[in-house]
Give the backbone structure.
Amino acid sequence: MKINMNKKLVFRSVLFVLLISAIGGGAYLADQNSHVQEQPEMKLSVENPIESYIQTVYSTYSNEIVSIWDDLSNGKDTDINEVLIKVKEYNTLIENQDIKFNSLNLPIKQQLNTFEKFLVASQEEQNTEQRKVLRRLSWDFVEGHNSVKEGFIKILKENDAEFTVEDDGTILYQFPK
């Protein structure tokens, strides 16, 4: 009986040690994997500051500002105060960049200016004159968006990047190594 009890105690002890080891090993591996994922991003911004600038300025514009514009121009309900805060944050983001490309910054700032005018005009009472103003601002934003793309392409050309413009307007690029 005592031998059987000792076997159970040894078995439980070994099981406990294996369980603790497995948990510790899993935590160790998870920690190792997280370091591996962080390193490529750091190298990207150190190796090519132009690409880092593009990712910060142009990608934020494309992903955030343009999508908010699409929502507003399509009449989706959005919190105007939140949008104004985003626009101000984005203006600050552009101003705080170490590298400044006027071929991209100037059209984007014009876009933000058009965006703010559209926000103000969209909050006013809708009459015939007001709808004309909103249509004109929408046209200005679309034209300005083309200017932003041209500025982006100019930066790519100046820095010898290989790029293609897809049918949907997406620009794929790669800088030389």
Notes: Helices lie at 2-47, 49-73, 80-95, 102-123, 128-158. The first strand starts at residue 162 and ends at 165.
